[in-house]
Amino acid sequence: MQFRSFAPLAAGLLVASGHAAAQTFDLATLSPADTGVSNLVGSACDVSGTAVILGGAGHSDGGVAGTGGAWIFERNAGGAWAESAELVPSDAMVFGRFGFAVAIDGDVAMVGAHDDSSVLSGAGSVYVYTRQPDQTWLETDKLAASDATVFAQFGHSVAIDGDFAVIGAPTAKSPFGTSGAGYVFQRQMDDSWLQVAKLFDSDAPSGVELGFDASISGTRVVLGAHKQGDTAPVAGAAHVFERQNDGSWPRVAKLLASDGAAIDYFGYSVSVSGDNIVCGAWQDDDFGTGTGSAYVFERQPDTSWTEVAKLLPPVVQSNGHFGQSVWVDGDYALIGEIHEIVGFYIDAGGAHGYERGAGDWAHSESFYYQVPGNDQNFGHCLAVDDGTIVIGSSENDQVATNGGLAKLYYSYGATSDPAPVVQGNGSDGCDGPQVIGLARPAQIDSADFGFTCTNAPASSTGFLLVGNVADIAGSDLLGLGVTLHVNVLLSTPTLLLDFFSDASGDGFAPAPLPNSPSLVGAVLHAQGVWVWTSCTLPPLNLSSSNLVSFTISAP
């Protein structure tokens, strides 16, 4: 089928009402080719556009035991995801914990090795990799704290946004002992990275572990201090720093849970996106021992920060540790519950998405590994970038015992791209109403894009109508005895494709989308039509599905 016809289809656009279709798609399972026993792949992860980075601090490479590892996966032509690079430190050290923390933004990736002792014992370091014109990844820098001290754990956390990166060192020295710090680096004209600030809490006692987790959005940084005890011992805190016009990075806010209690570990995980901050408190026991929680803060017009929501899992479990990992991207938050019981599987783990609505944050979806098992730790790490979601399962045994892996999803709830909408009723078949949907996100350069349909006649071939003009109420436009929601007379043109069903009556219509930027923004409508032999449907034994309306976007 020649899909250049999609271009003229984009000429007529129709805004329609209806209800959201399936919002989330399972894109891929990401597993490095050399995954081994106890690699813990998926204990760290990040995503930027069409690239994902995974860390596995238990990996051994180059004959050096326990060096750690990091891998990059990228979306290839046609939409498949594959490993594109294994990142190896040029001076790998035994048990340096390379890959414990990872970050990627555009053409830059950073990998933390917080136990690296090349400067001082346990001082830590971060390796910088840059994508080259030939699409390979080259180590271009190695970062260390300007005031490195032993066992500072520089590189325990790392985050990048544009020309700025923040690196956490939770046991670095500050004015009051080893309370921890964050270090800000700025990219220079020659692509090197220069330390421009050290962030710390001037009145924090030793042991609060500031920088245990770190996040950056623009020129705003959040550092977690999960052992801080302002309100109760080890209740936790998070600190917000912002770059000023003079280049300084002062602290502008300290965030505390409104109901903080002892040993909540608030700030164990932190994430910032614009004016939204989410902090995890994985040991919060308000609803049972170690159930966990996450808190959402929003920046107010007077530049203060206000707690606006406390997020809980849809099913609260003792020792589920909801909030062990958190991520916020715009008005979407994703929270990991690493020790959630799934079915009867202990510590299988899960992750839960929340969307900001009219003044509140509501649970919208949950993610689980497709074959749950004990101790998979699904949700150990997670990251979101404009709808693309990566979730690590650090002790998953699918490839090797505790080898780990990550799952990749696409969620319309986590992107500004319009979600597909299902509307209309169609005409029932012999097995009842037929519901059409998308098999994959509607993105250009997707060889496996297509449509699904329920309750189709078993092992049959039907038809898929695609057009750019819809009739939501529907009519028997062609006198076939079925309700059509694609206006085949006004669409320019109408595509007629094959719909195939299996023995269970589940239909699939392949419709690969080409890599044509001109298609981006096109609003199209699709409906299935089937022929039946198992019952009589006057006058022609036809049925029709309802309608799915979708907008083509770029990956």
TrEMBL record:
InterPro entries, A to Z: FG-GAP, Int_alpha_beta-p, Integrin_alpha_N
Organism: Engelhardtia mirabilis
Record's keyword terms, sorted: Glycoprotein, Repeat, Signal
Gene3D superfamilies hit by this protein: Integrin alpha, N-terminal
Name used for this protein in its record: FG-GAP repeat protein
Record-linked SUPFAM superfamilies: Integrin alpha N-terminal domain
Signal sequence, start to end: 1-22
Pfam family, one: FG-GAP_2
The keyword Repeat is annotated on this UniProt entry: yes
